[in-house]
Amino acid sequence: MRPFSFGGVLLATFIYIANAEFTSSHKLHKRIHVYPPYVQVKPRSYIVQFEDYLPPTHAGHFYSMPGVDVQHHYSNIFNGISVRTDRSADSTHLASVNGVKRVWPVRVYTAAGYSTGLNATYPYIHKPTGVERAIEELGLDGKGIHIGIVDTGVDYNHPELGNCWKTKGCMWQYGADLVGDKYNPYTENPIIVPKQTPMDCAGHGTHVSGIIAGQGPTVYGVARNVTLGMYRVFGCPGTDPGAGQTSDDFIIKGIEMAVADKSDIISLSLGGGSWSDGPSSIAASNAVKQGIVVVAAVGNDGTGGLHTVSAPAVGNGVLGVGSVDSWNYTVSMMMIVNEHTSQSVFITPSNTVGYPFIFETDTPVVSLVNNSDVEACVNITQDLTGIVAVFEITSNCSPLSTIASIAQAGAVGIILIYTKPGLTYPTLETGKIPLVVISSDNGQFLLDAIAQGPTTIKALKSNPTITIPADKGSGQISTFSSMGPDPNLGLSPHVMAPGGYIYSTFPLKFGSYFVLSGTSMATPYVSGAVALLKQARPNLTVKEIGEILLTTAHPIINSKTKKVEHPYKGGSGLINVYDAIKSRAKIDPPMLSLNSTTRGVITTYQDLSALGNVRWTARTIKLTNMDVNNNMRIDIDYSISDSLSMYYKNGSIAYTPRVWTGNATTGGINNTEPVVYIPDAVKSIPSGKTGQYTVILVAPKGLAECEGWYFGGQLNFNLKWDGDLNITPYHVPFAGFNGDYTKLDVLAPLGSGFPFLGDENAKPVDPKNLVVSASNPISVYFSMALPSHLGILQLVDANNKKIGYLPQGYATDIPHTCPTCSVPNISVIVNGTVFTDTDLTNAIEAPAGKYYLHSAFLRPFGNTSNSDDYQTWDSPEFTIG
User: Fold this and answer.
1) If you compute the radius of gyration of the chain from its CA atoms, what whole number of angstroms results?
2) pTM here?
3) Where is the Peptidase S8/S53 domain (predicted)?
4) First and final C-alpha spacing in the chain
5) pLDDT higher for 472 or 235?
6) Is residue 621 scored above 80 in pLDDT?
7) How far apart (Å, rounded) are the C-alpha atoms in residues 532 and 265?
8) What domains sit in the chain, N to C, each tagged with a CATH number?
9) Annotation says 204 is catalytic
10) Is residue 338 a contact partner of residue 454, using CB atoms and an 8 Å limit?
11) Residue 770: helix, strand or coil by DSSP?
């Protein structure tokens, strides 16, 4: 802890053309949204938003428009429609109608990507979150609270999920199938045949439902007596691209139906993009304005580092949830037998949905570790018919290719030895062959047994399960959990909950129970916790619920550094619903997003002027004593997190954030940690009254601004009421950038190898010996260090005349990219075709000749009319023939 020293928007375009062209393009950009090329969109489908002052009846203009088919008419949380068009109509036609505020292509989404792993059952994950005490001491169960879930559906026939649908006394009273089994948003004419009920054919929604309200005896949910609604917006998984995915139009429809059904809470374990002004984010934020708590997953791109949180979790007022690993593993067992040993070995549940790792007869097991074919990454020549094969992930080959080769050789099962700590492992598509994972220790035992002689797996009708303690990662931030900040330096995630290795319900036809990991799993946990809080304190507003949940969360302490985790990784900390229910103080705001700082001498307070020329900001915090009978005494200190940077010292990008690990106690003006001051801090607040604090935060001057450090920590309000023996801690996270954020480049450093011109396989090409044409195209590849709200790529001739925009060369909402992210990089095709308009509808062919590409990317908070606010890059010259 650090004592105080005193007691006492991004809306832009970047077009490097004449001013007249710039003005026209800017006006068009304000109405038509064009996604970057990596974004999958529904063919010829758009979402049209009307101006706020217009009534829903304004949609009537579109029902008679030639070439336009209105698909959905929204009204209560989104003023607009979704449409499909034929080839005679496009976004320009839609935007030309009076009263249209914005037009978006319909974006495609997946459920917040999840992977199989392991976890704990009740009560192990409920004790650290305060849920156990809320249930057992306060008798709470969520009764009377309605939660709407927008997901893949639910197997409501599951005995631990009620085995009922909309009957009297059933937990499922609301919901619908919006899409049917065959819905695929990638197709020209999606098959939309909703069923009478939202039966789950994927598993994700059933798993989410068990986390909220599993009835036991195997899975005990957070709020077992809530009333639920399921709004199915995903089709069934399949081999075709787009199968098992959904799109903006149906997500909005699902949210709207949940609002109409009077949901108190809406749970969204899905996401994509990183901006708060997309249609699904707007819909979620509008639901919040109507008094509904919206809880959303921040995403699973944490291995990509900073700036990986996703929408709609970044929507205004939406509660964005990150994941921590659980405290126990629920594992299965298999029996290994040979003439020398007979022993049980812990395994994960089968990674292959619908194909459990059980065998009717004793089944031989062989090792492919050090197998020459596996090591050489070629097809396995050994006959594996009727055999279970064991192998390790190596750096030489893709595990997917090895799995396919093993299956082709006739194996009936696969055991993967995972050499990393714990029992987590990546999702691996295995087709129709069961795959389980064992730890390196158990793997070595198995390999030793095989080396002794013929070894078999004992025939079992089912795999027994057992709960065992987790390794040192329990309660720590999951490696997959996406990190903040959002593109506007907003603090995200907001809170954390168990999401790593969660054992929950699964469709009966897929085995009834399964282990998944993801922020998808943490989100319903928070939704259930909010239900308990609303049941206990029904008069709280949405804003108050957020304030209380965040300020009573327990900051996550890094097990290695013993410091509080950076708020861009851990938000406010792990939720504790019992402490939230019992809270007697309210802090506004509950977190400080320091998206603007000033460099200079702090002249406002004379005692601080001695700090000299520093980067600083001041914020106001209001602390309310909600106890109407007792006065409250306040002592304030603060905890500092290790600063994070997305760059190494040599300037190359660090997808795993670089951490400032030095002992930052140098003091004085060269301190390498941020410093917090609260001049004239109030020491007590009477019952029912509010105190106001000015908080001055000074960035770490001892860290070089050119190295791009993000600093952060927690303000600790240690409160004690009259008659109390113990102090009750409340926390407010703060985080910001150590420098002028508006001056940062958004492209990855040139040393990263980007941008470059390359072939369809992303192999760099030499433009000097290249003739580009429709039959011989190339692409330009970009990697984004920071999100950029809008980007343009133009073809420029040898006389420096702009010919037009490349196909997909005008785009908005460009995210941070990384090798392990949902978006590894961005590529735009170059084939001689360009467009004269920003909607990319008026195509022309560039004459033969010499050309180069001009790109410009708006920096954070950039001004669209200021050319200095853009980062530009020009390609080498090439020939179009």
Assistant:
1) 28
2) 0.86
3) 142-559
4) 67
5) 235
6) yes
7) 11
8) 31-110 (3.30.70.80), 112-327+472-548 (3.40.50.200), 329-469 (3.50.30.30), 584-743 (2.60.40.10), 750-880 (2.60.40)
9) yes
10) yes
11) coil
Q: Which of 93, 126, 158, 204 is catalytic?
A: 204
Which residue among the candidates 151, 181, 248, 325 is catalytic per the annotation? 151
Nearest to 870 by CA among 26, 12, 25: 12
The H or E element containing residue 260 is: helix 248-260
Q: Report DSSP letters for 411-478, one per residue.
A: -SEEEEEE-SSSS-------TTS-EEEEEHHHHHHHHHHHHHS--EEPP-SS--EEEEE--TTTTSBP
Query: Which positions ≥6 away from 389 have C-beta within 8 Å?
Result: 365, 366, 367, 368, 406, 409, 411, 413, 414, 415
The enclosing H or E element of 104 equals strand 100-111
d(CA 527, CA 295): 6
**Cis bond upstream, residue 464 (ω within 30):** no
> What residue spans of 706-788 are helical by DSSP H?
none
pLDDT in tens, 471-519: 656 789 999 999 999 999 999 999 999 998 888 999 998 878 888 889 9
Mean pLDDT within 655-676? 72
d(CA 602, CA 613): 8
- Tens of pLDDT along 11-46? 122 222 222 223 333 444 468 888 877 688 898 899
Peptide bond into 589 cis (omega under 30): yes
Q: Which long-range contacts (CB under 8 A, 24 or more apart) does 597-600 make?
A: 597/699, 597/736, 597/737, 599/740
CA pair distance 744, 721, nearest whole angstrom:
46
> 370-387 pLDDT, tens per residue?
777 776 677 788 899 999
DSSP assignment, residue 861? T
Q: By mean pLDDT, which of 98-102, 473-477, 518-522, 782-786 is the weakest?
A: 473-477
> Is the separation of the CB atoms in 97 and 62 below 8 Å?
yes
Q: Do residues 820 and 655 make contact, with C-beta atoms less than 8 angstroms apart?
A: yes
CA distances from 545 to 523, 533, 536, 567, 812 (A): 16, 8, 12, 19, 33
Tens of pLDDT, residue by residue over 122-159, are 445 799 999 999 999 999 999 999 999 999 999 999 99
Q: Mean pLDDT over residues 239-253, rounded?
A: 90
CA distance 208 to 251: 17
The pLDDT score that the predictor gives to residue 463 is 64
Among 45, 82, 520, 639, which one carries the catalytic annotation? 520
d(CA 117, CA 351): 9
731 to 7, 493, 551, 717, 831: CA distances (angstroms): 18, 15, 5, 6, 55
Is residue 158 among the annotated active site residues?
no
φ, ψ for residue 79, nearest 5 deg: -85, 90
Q: Whole-angstrom Cα distance, residue 874 to residue 211?
A: 51
Please confirm, yes or no, whether 151 is among the known catalytic residues.
yes
* Contacts with 18 (C-beta within 8 Å, 6 or more apart), sequence order: none
3-state secondary structure labels for all residues of 656-719: EEEECCCCCCCCHHHCCCCEEECCCCCCEECCCCEEEEEEEEECCCCCCHHHCEEEEEEEEEEE
Report which residue type is found at 43. P
The three-state secondary structure class of 857 is strand
Query: If you ran DSSP here, which 8-state letter would residue 752 be given?
Result: G
The structure tokens listed for 24 are 């026209």
Question: Residue 311 and residue 296: Cα distance in Å, rounded?
Answer: 8
CA nearest to 4, candidates 638, 603, 610: 638
Cα 849 to its chain centre, rounded Å, is 45
Nearby residues of 109 by Cβ (< 8 Å), 6 or more positions away: 245, 246, 247, 248, 251, 270, 271, 272, 280
Backbone angles phi, psi at 447, to 5 degrees: -65, -40
**Nearest 5°: CA angle at 213, between 212 and 218?**
110
Helices (H), 493-613: 519-536, 542-552, 567-570, 577-582
Nearest to 48 by CA among 1, 6, 88, 105: 105
